[in-house]
Design brief:
The complex is a heterodimer of chains A (423) and B (248).
Chain A: H1 3-16, H2 19-47, E1 51-57, H3 62-72, E2 77-81, H4 87-96, E3 101-105, H5 109-114, E4 122-125, H6 134-161, H7 167-171, E5 180-182, E6 185-187, H8 191-229, H9 233-237, H10 243-277, H11 293-319, H12 324-339, H13 355-362, H14 368-378, H15 381-407, H16 410-413
Chain B: E1 6-15, E2 18-28, E3 33-37, H1 44-51, E4 59-64, E5 67-68, H2 73-79, E6 80-83, H3 95-106, H4 113-124, H5 139-152, E7 157-161, H6 169-186, E8 189-194, H7 197-203, E9 206-211, E10 214-219, H8 221-227, H9 233-240
Parallel strand pairs in B: 3-8, 3-9, 6-7, 7-8
Antiparallel strand pairs in B: 1-2, 1-4, 4-5, 9-10
Helix pairs in contact in B: 3-4, 3-5, 4-5
Classes of the chains: A alpha/beta (423), B alpha/beta (248).
The structure holds adenosine-5'-triphosphate (ATP) and magnesium ion (MG).
Magnesium ion is lined by residues 44-45, 85, 161 of chain B.
Chain lengths: 423, 248
C-alpha cells in the first residue's frame, strides 16, 4: 500500500469511530429529519380527518333541511343536530359535544331563498384549545365548499326554471383554464403547481448545500486541530512521508465524510419535505425539463469543487488554531458568513438581480452549487463551465496555501486562541 | 573521514523575541548514545525539534548523516525516529492498530512491516491491552506505546525527548536496557534529553550540558565528574549551571 492509502485508511478509521460525528452524519439526517417530517405530516393528516359539525336549525322551510342533507351526505363530515333556544346556547352545546364547527341556519332562511333574496348561513369555528388551529380552518373550508356547492345547485335550478338550457354557462360566463409555458414549452400544468415544484427544489438545495459545506468544514478543521490537541502532530510530521501526502489523505478522508453527508442529508431532507408538505405527483420531466447525464456530471463537479474549497479553507484556518474548539469557532465565523448569501437565492433569481449584485453573489463560491443547479435545469452548460473554472482556481489557490502552511513550522508554533483567552 | 551521525554548528533559534538557542555546536558519532541535559527552558527540546525537521533554525547548521535538516528534510526523515516530549496516539485506534499504521509507513525498501510490528508489540509490553483503544490507556501505557513505535523501526538515529518521563521504575529500567541493546546490536545512534541523571549516567556514552541556550560542557560522564570533582552527574549539573559552589 502506498503512503497515501495507509494514511487515508487511518483517517477514515479515526473518523468513522467518532460517535459524535456519526450522530451528526447519520442519525440526525436519516432518523431525526424524517421523524420531524412525519410529526408534521401527522398533524396535517389529523386535521384532514373527520370534521364534526353541529347544526342548529332555526328555519322551518325545505331549504334548511336540504342543507342539512347535503352536509350529511358529504364525505369526512359527521353531522350532529343540536336543539337550542338561541345561538348562545347552541354554541355551548356544540362546544361541550367537542364539535369543530357549528352551522346556524337562521329563521326565515328558506323564505328568503324562495323569494329570490340572498339568505345567510352562519358558520362558527369552535376553538376548544389554542393549538395549531389547523383543524378548525380545514373544517371551515370544508363547510364553505359544501355551502358553495349547494348554493350553486339551487341557483342552477332557479335559472333552469327561467327557461335557460345551460344554467352553468349563465352563472359562470367566464371560465379560466391555466397552463404554463416553461422555457419555450407549453405544458398542461397550472402555474401554481409549477411554482410549487420549483419552490420545493429551491428550498431543499440551499439547505443541503449549507449543511454539507459547514459539516465538512468542521470535520476538516477537526482533522487538523485534533492532531494538535491529542499531540500526535509532531510525530506525524517527522514520519518518512511527504507533507503533501498527509494533507491529501486528510482531504480524502474528509471528502468521504462530506459525500456521506451529502447523501444522508439529501435523503433526509427529501423525506422531511416529502412527508410534511405532501409530494406533488408532477415531476420535472412533466414540465419538459430534461436532466442529462452531462448536466448531472457538470453539477457534480461544481458541488465537489465547492466542498474542496470549504475543506481547504477550514484546514488552513485550523493550522493556525490551538485546539479543536478554537478551530471550530474560527471556521464557523468564517464559513457561516460565506454560506449565508446562498440563501438569498431561495427567494430571488440571479437573473432578476442587478448585475453588480449578481456578480457579488457569484464571487462567493458557496452560491455556485445553487446557481449551477438552475443552469443545469436550463441546459446552460457553458455557464456551468465558467463556474467550474472559477471554483477550480479558488480551490487550487487555497489548497496551495494549505499545503504550504502545512510544510512550514507555523503549524507547530502558531497557537491562536482566536479570541479566546488563554488559560 | 567518516560522516558523523549528527553535526550541529552554531545553531540559533528565536521564537519571536525569545532566544531559545544562542549558537550551539556538537557532534555525535554513529552508534553513540548521546545525552542532552540541562535545566528547564535550557533549549533541549528546541534542539531536538530542529534535528527532527520540525523547526527551522534561525541561524547555523544541523545535519543528520551529512544531510541538512532544512534542505533535505525528506531524506533526514527517512533515517530518524522522533519521540516528542509530550505526545499522544490516535485515540480511536487500538494500540495494535497504531503500531501497524506506523510500521506500514516505515516499512520501505524491503523492510518488513510484520517484523517491525512484532518488535513493537514486544517493546510496548502492553500484552492484551494492545487490543484496547488508546483512549483507555494510562499516561505511562501511552508513553510505552509511543516508545515502542519509535524504537521498533530501528532508525539510524533515534531522537528521544525525555523518553522515560512518566514511566515507573520497572518500565524505565526495561527501556534503558532496550536502548542499550539496540545501540550495541543494531548500531542505532541515540540522541536523548533527560532530567534523570541516574539514567543519563547509566545510559549515555557522552553528555552535553546545555544552559540558557548554550552548551556549557561536553564529555563522557566520567570526564565530567573528574572535571568538576563531583561524585555524580547531579553534582556536575548543579556546579556547571552555577547553582552550587564547587572547585573549578
Ligand atoms: N513555541 C514556543 N514559543 C515561544 N517560546 C518557546 C516555544 N517553545 C519553547 N520556547 C522557549 O524556548 C526556550 C527553550 O525551550 P525548550 O522547550 O527547548 O526547553 P527545554 O530545555 O526542553 O526545557 P524542559 O526541560 O522544561 O523541557 C524556553 O525559554 C521556552 O520558553
Ligand atoms: Mg523539553
Amino acid at each position: 500500500m502506498s503512503d497515501f492509502w495507509v494514511l487515508f485508511a487511518k483517517e477514515l478509521k479515526n473518523l468513522l469511530r467518532d460517535k459524535k460525528l456519526i450522530f451528526g452524519l447519520v442519525i440526525v439526517p436519516l432518523l431525526i429529519y424524517p421523524a420531524l417530517g412525519k410529526g408534521m405530516g401527522i398533524g396535517i393528516e389529523k386535521a384532514r380527518g373527520e370534521t364534526h359539525v353541529a347544526i342548529a336549525n332555526f328555519d322551518s322551510g325545505d331549504y334548511g333541511s336540504l342543507l342539512i342533507r347535503a352536509l350529511n351526505s358529504s364525505p369526512n363530515v359527521t353531522v350532529t343536530l343540536v336543539e337550542a333556544g338561541d345561538v348562545e346556547a347552541a354554541l355551548e352545546r356544540a362546544s361541550s359535544l367537542k364539535q369543530n364547527v357549528l352551522v346556524v341556519i337562521p329563521p326565515g332562511f328558506s323564505e328568503s331563498i324562495a323569494e329570490n333574496r340572498s339568505a345567510t348561513v352562519y358558520v362558527y369555528g369552535i376553538f376548544s384549545s389554542l393549538g395549531t388551529g389547523m383543524k378548525e380552518s380545514v373544517s371551515e373550508g370544508r363547510i364553505n365548499a359544501i355551502i358553495q356547492a349547494l348554493s350553486r345547485g339551487i341557483a342552477e335550478i332557479k335559472v333552469k326554471k327561467l327557461g335557460f338550457s345551460e344554467p352553468s354557462a349563465l352563472l359562470s360566463p367566464i371560465q379560466a383554464r391555466s397552463l404554463s409555458y416553461v422555457r419555450g414549452r407549453l405544458v398542461n400544468v397550472s402555474p401554481s403547481v409549477v411554482s410549487a415544484i420549483l419552490a420545493s427544489q429551491s428550498v431543499t438545495l440551499p439547505i443541503v448545500v449549507f449543511l454539507m459545506v459547514t459539516l465538512t468544514a468542521q470535520i476538516a478543521a477537526g482533522a487538523i486541530a485534533s492532531e494538535k490537541e491529542n499531540k500526535t502532530l509532531e510525530t506525524l510530521l517527522t514520519l518518512p512521508v511527504k507533507r503533501t501526502t498527509i494533507v491529501a489523505s486528510k482531504i480524502g478522508g474528509t471528502a468521504v465524510m462530506g459525500l456521506i453527508a451529502a447523501l444522508t442529508y439529501t435523503f433526509g431532507m427529501r423525506s422531511y419535505i416529502g412527508s410534511s408538505f405532501g409530494g406533488s405527483n408532477v415531476s420535472l420531466g412533466d414540465l419538459g425539463i430534461r436532466i442529462t447525464p452531462q448536466g448531472i456530471l457538470l453539477f457534480g463537479v461544481v458541488v465537489f469543487l465547492t466542498v474542496a474549497f470549504a475543506l481547504s479553507l477550514a484546514m488552513l484556518l485550523a493550522i493556525f488554531s490551538e485546539d479543536v474548539q478554537s478551530a471550530n469557532t474560527v471556521v464557523s465565523s468564517v464559513i457561516l458568513p460565506l454560506a449565508f448569501p446562498s440563501f438569498i437565492l431561495m427567494y430571488t433569481d440571479l437573473s432578476s438581480l442587478p448585475k453588480a449584485a449578481a456578480y457579488a453573489l457569484l464571487s462567493d463560491p458557496f452560491t455556485h452549487p445553487i446557481v449551477a443547479y438552475q443552469w443545469m435545469l436550463a441546459g446552460e452548460y457553458a455557464r456551468i463551465a465558467w463556474s467550474i473554472g472559477y471554483l477550480s482556481v479558488a480551490a487550487l489557490v487555497l489548497l496551495y496555501l494549505t499545503a504550504r502552511a502545512f510544510s512550514g513550522e507555523k503549524i507547530l508554533t502558531a497557537k491562536m486562541g482566536w479570541g479566546r483567552r488563554r488559560r | 573521514m567518516e560522516v558523523p551521525a549528527v553535526r550541529v554548528e552554531g545553531l540559533e533559534k528565536d521564537y519571536g523575541k525569545v532566544r531559545a538557542l544562542k549558537g550551539i555546536s556538537f557532534q555525535i558519532g554513529e552508534g553513540e548514545i548521546f545525552g542532552l541535559i540541562g535545566p528547564n527552558g535550557a533549549g533541549k527540546s528546541t534542539t531536538l525539534k530542529i534535528l527532527a525537521t520540525l523547526l527551522r533554525p534561525t541561524a547555523g547548521k544541523a545535519e543528520v548523516f551529512g544531510r541538512d535538516v532544512v534542505e533535505e528534510a525528506g531524506k533526514v526523515r527517512e533515517m530518524i525516529s522522533y519521540l516528542p516530549e509530550e505526545a499522544g496516539a490516535y485515540k480511536n485506534l487500538t494500540g495494535r492498530e497504531y503500531l501497524e499504521f506506523m510500521a506500514k509507513l516505515y516499512a520501505k525498501g524491503g523492510r518488513d512491516a510484520d517484523e517491525m510490528l512484532e518488535l513493537g508489540v514486544e517493546l510496548s509490553g502492553l500484552g492484551e491491552r494492545l487490543d484496547d483503544k488508546v483512549s483507555t490507556y494510562s499516561k505511562g501505557m501511552t508513553r510505552r506505546l509511543l516508545l515502542a513505535r519509535a524504537l521498533m523501526v530501528k532508525p539510524k538515529l533515534a531522537i528521544l525527548d525525555e523518553p522515560a518521563s512518566g514511566l515507573d521504575i520497572i518500565n524505565a529500567y526495561t527501556i534503558r536496557k532496550t536502548i542499550k541493546a539496540l545501540s550495541a546490536s543494531e548500531g542505532v545512534t541515540f540522541l536523548i534529553s533527560s532530567h534523570n541523571m541516574l539514567e543519563v549516567e547509566y545510559l549515555c556514552h557522552r553528555v552535553a550540558l546545555i544552559s540558557g541556550g548554550r552548551i556549557v560542557e561536553v564529555g563522557t560522564p566520567a570526564e565530567l565528574k573528574e572535571r568538576y570533582e563531583a561524585e555524580n552527574l547531579e553534582e556536575v549539573f548543579m556546579r556547571a549551571v552555577g547553582l552550587e559552589g564547587g572547585q573549578k
